[in-house]
Amino acid sequence: MRARSGSGVRLDRILFLAEQTIIKHQDPVTALFANQSDTSPDHAWVRDNVYAAHALWALYRAFQKSADFDEDMVKADELGMTCVKLMQSLLECMMRQAEKVEEFKKHQRALDSLHAKYSARKKLSVVGDSEWGHLQLDATSLFLLTLAQMTASGLQVVRNFDEVAFIQNLVWYIETGYRTPDFGVWERGDKTNQGIRELNASSIGMVKAALQALNSVGDLFGDGSKGSVIHVMPDEIEQCTAVLESMLPRESFSKETDAALLTIISYPGFAVEDSELIEATRETIINSLYGKYGCKRFLRDGYKTVLEDPSRLYYNKSELQQFEDIECEWPVFVCFLLLDAMYRKDESDVERYWRQLDEVLVVCPQGFRYVPELYKVEREHVSGEKAQRGSQPRSHDGPTPYLWAQSLYVICCLLYEGFLLPAELDPLSRRMAATERKAPCEVQVSILADSMEVQEELRVNGIYVQRVDELDEVFCVRPASALAATLAKLGECTKLSMSGRPLERDVGILSTSRLYQVGKKFVIFTPQFMDRSRSHLMYDIRILMDEWSSELTYLYEAWRPRVQIAAGRALIVLVVNKGMLSSEGLSSIANLSMTRFMKSTVTGTIKKINNGYIGGARVVMKNVSDFFRTTAVNKLEFHHDDWDESRGERIQLLAREDKNTEKMSMDTPKGQRGKGGVKRGDSVKDRSAYSFVHKASMRHRSIVLDSNDAGNDKRLTDEDLVQLRLAFSRGGKASLDTPQSPSADRAPSRGVGFSSGSLTRSSPISIPAPSLTSAATLPVLHESPIQRGGVLHTTMRNTGSTSSLEGMSSSVRLEHSQLEEMGVGEVVEMLRETSDLEEQTTLVHYLWMKFGADYDTRLEEGRAVTVRELMEEVYEKACDTREWSLVRLTSGLLRKRLDELPKAVTHLLVRQKQLTVGMPSKKEEAITSPKTNEELKDIMYRAYADDPNAFTLSQEIIVYLGSLVRTEPKLFTEVFRLRVGLIIQVLASELARLRNLSAADALQNLLTISPFEMKSMLFLLLSGRLLEDASEGGEGKGARTGIGSFRKQIEERKSMRKSMRAEKSVDSKESSESSKSIESEEESEESGESEEEVFGIWLRHRRIDGALNRVPPNFYATLWDTLHRLPQGVRVNGITLHWGLTQEMTRREIKFALEVEEVLNQIPEPEYRELVIETIYLVSRLEKLTTEYSSIPSDRPIDIDNIIQRANAIFVDQNRQMATEVLDCCGTGVNCDGARGVCKHLYDSAPAGEYGTSHYIIKSLCSFFM
Prior knowledge:
Elements: H1 6-21, E1 43-45, H2 46-66, H3 70-95, H4 98-107, E2 117-119, H5 137-153, H6 161-174, H7 201-217, H8 234-247, H9 262-265, H10 275-289, E3 290-291, E4 294-296, E5 329-330, H11 332-344, H12 347-360, E6 362-363, E7 369-370, E8 374-376, H13 382-387, E9 395-397, H14 403-416, E10 443-449, H15 452-460, E11 466-467, E12 475-478, H16 480-487, H17 509-512, E13 515-518, E14 521-525, H18 541-558, E15 571-576, H19 588-611, E16 613-614, E17 617-621, E18 633-635, H20 658-661, H21 687-699, H22 709-712, H23 718-723, H24 785-788, H25 816-821, H26 824-833, H27 837-851, H28 867-881, H29 884-893, H30 901-909, E19 914-917, E20 925-927, H31 933-943, H32 948-967, E21 977-979, H33 980-995, H34 999-1008, H35 1011-1023, H36 1027-1031, H37 1045-1067, H38 1072-1094, H39 1097-1107, H40 1115-1125, E22 1130-1132, E23 1135-1137, H41 1141-1144, H42 1150-1160, H43 1166-1181, H44 1183-1188, E24 1198-1199, H45 1200-1218, H46 1240-1243, H47 1253-1265
Parallel strand pairs: 10-11, 10-15, 10-17, 12-14, 13-18, 19-21, 22-24
Antiparallel strand pairs: 1-2, 3-4, 4-5, 6-7, 8-9, 13-14, 16-17, 19-20, 22-23
């Protein structure tokens, strides 16, 4: 008999350990493991069973590698088959719940999720849908990750195409994990155990790992079988990456960090590619959670501690603090740390963790080494452990051996003994992502013209492109919607009653930026934003071109080899049609200038692409055939091939015949086409009757900014705006004059008034050009019923949306009796008379208000014409003519939801930026977690039930914020919650200040601004820059945010004026008389300009930061420290932030920040809110005052409002003694119009310096404490 080698004996010993501690608990029929035999004897947890499969798989690979005899190969085969049977049983358990997967794909409801545990004997459910926290995306993702790794190693788990279809549906099930709150690894969600789901970084990381692994594994049969390839959307992987990097080292809202993050920064997930972030997360876990017996799961975890009440599942918030320092420690995380050290090849850490693991093992009477579930502090040692962490002994508790930990211990033994290398447990080489990082490669761009006319227009401008019909026959161009329809077939299974990917989900640019091989064809899918008119925003040509730029930049940064998207480079195909280069439907005067501008906008963007650099991205522009050998290719195959390969002709994407480009039925009546302007006969003849209707319509067009307005039919007046602290304190001449267009006499208030030469390098958005620029025509991507034949005859005139301002007065109120006397016949007759779009909108709006949307106007004989149908037609025409105020009004009345809205909300929320919609502090509703489309629609309806303009404008603002947070995340570094209502108010305030408008006119002008101009204004506000700086053409070195961003701007502007003065004085030496006049003129200009620019700068800055809810770095953590020291807490705006909050929540817990935000958001005045934040921050910084002096009140909280009032009194008294300009306002003893009775000059003081706000607040604090 041959003797075994020493290594063989050691391997047998490890196998024997696994058999006695793991395999003997396996069900002989199902191969599933039930770990907790005492409390749940038949419950097989998915997560525990997958880790048991890892142990069996590791043993299988070890015996394969180290076999001495044939018996060893037999043992390896047995282990391999046992592992496969276990994975197949888990798959069968899930397939029995296929109907849940189908429902969850559509709605992401917790009750529709796959169960987290099943019967070990019957493979059926063991608890009800609502009786357990089943939604655990990490468990499902871990199963898919393991399936991919085992398949790559040579084991075949999937047996037939029905299982392939189900696995594909599991991909659709988890791909939205980056925005789906779940119950997490510990099955309880929020750490209070009250069943509150959260976005968990550990779940998102495991989802990303599973998607990447399945994308890399190839076919599941391992033999190249047709239809066994799993398709993954790379955009969802990139979304997970962005969210994960924004969250780490945080686990969720309620958990600062979590030991479960070890599973995604190292084995088995390897989901994080940023080595610095991996190191930071590891250090955070070790510093916060690591102990002698393992790691705590998270801070203040009460699970199985002696102070936990076992009679109830949930915790009271006030009792969480009692668990601090006595949380149970879990040895399973010593295994994870040991595996991590092995993958890092850190020998010292390997030895340290191995010794520690050996110390925490429990030796049974038979001599086997068990890894227990946890170690807890006994009751008699609680006080000692709280006094000094880690000083007291602990005793093991829970299932011993603990299946999850015991499985990892077996793997650690195999690696430590050298039977396996770490790489052998990662056949897909996922571990290499953090170390092998390559620079992004340039993006390949092909521009196609949809017609010969467009091709010729571009050729005249020096741009040579192919037409769609000139492509080689092997290529087929289709819109992104066709790819969505194709993906809807992937995963279809009649037997399981399962469909494919939901059609309503977006198809991202990473998915459309590669070739798809279907049969003998190579299909090119154009980006989704080119597919159709998703919203009225795309009717602004600058928004469309900005979309081109931002998407190319995103594609350049996201398409990296480490993401494992595909082998090859990205290819994006953009189609230009006639609608992008001409302004059909406008008057002849506007058409000439507008067409010239539109051509220059589009051709300018294409020339940037052709030059090889746009928006920070390196690109190369050629024909499609030139990129064939370098482009990533994905092969689409179907088991039941229902793709019609007989279609040999290429698809003419977005191509139109010339006769279809003219919308005869919608634009002008016959005989009026091509005539400019609106004739007197085109308007309503009875002007007195129309004036009543017009005034009634105008009363309901302005934005409601007070919750009481909705019930009283009131709108914003100048006094309201002053009360809300929005009107500029010292109005003067507008700093800019609006550029005049050839039709400026008709549109005096068009645009914000920026010059086209004001583009700054630091801005990703070009600053708005003169007034003509907003009237850009979007390519007609689909034809509506109204376009086929409209009811109203409209003469399209020049853009501007200014007629809504003519004759408007906020003081005019229409008598109810006069409106009642006007019959529907008169209004309908006026509709027949007029062809002016503004008048048509006014009349239809009046019918809408008086008779409702479904009222039949009888405008045509033979069929019903409802008011809603007329409003739809007006909306379409307003979009075509870029009448933005009419677009927003009609869109709001029709309750149209922008298609980009759900995606924008998701972009913000997953990056930890919350939203509130509605009127500030009165009717606001917070959006704190991802919502379904239906939920989002309901929230918007509740917030803007009676305000159609705000309904539309708020959606636009959210879409812009969602775009900017993705492309310019640094703008949001100091912002936690964005209040859309306050942002709208500040935009109106800035417009009033810039153009010297009244409050009502500012709000109306805000509605006329084009989408691109609105986005530009929002970008400037977020970046902390002055709108004047942009218009003066100054080039900033970079966008800065926060309280310090304005100091440098003031100095730069002063320096700029001095330089301009010096240049003028040199030129003026030619004549002494002219020199004297110039000097005197400059002195007067300097004094006036300095006064206008310097005064109000800090007041304005505080208003903007207050509206954006911007706070200093570490504000919430320092406030937590302050509350922890103050027994009665801090009072703000009459609401007390009590000391108990520090007992309920930890220092950096986002839930604590939410509690603080709830209090701060009750302050309606943004500048006062900022002053409150400055005061709280100073209180937090003055630790000596709040700790050493005994005069801290023990019977009442520190009143921040009282401190500010004292600081204001000190400020006014000092300035009265100095005889400053404060004597003109508060120095007389009468308060000025500053918010909360605080002098407006204090609001306008710099934060630091001898006369800064900090100086007076500190004096007030000293008097309070001392």
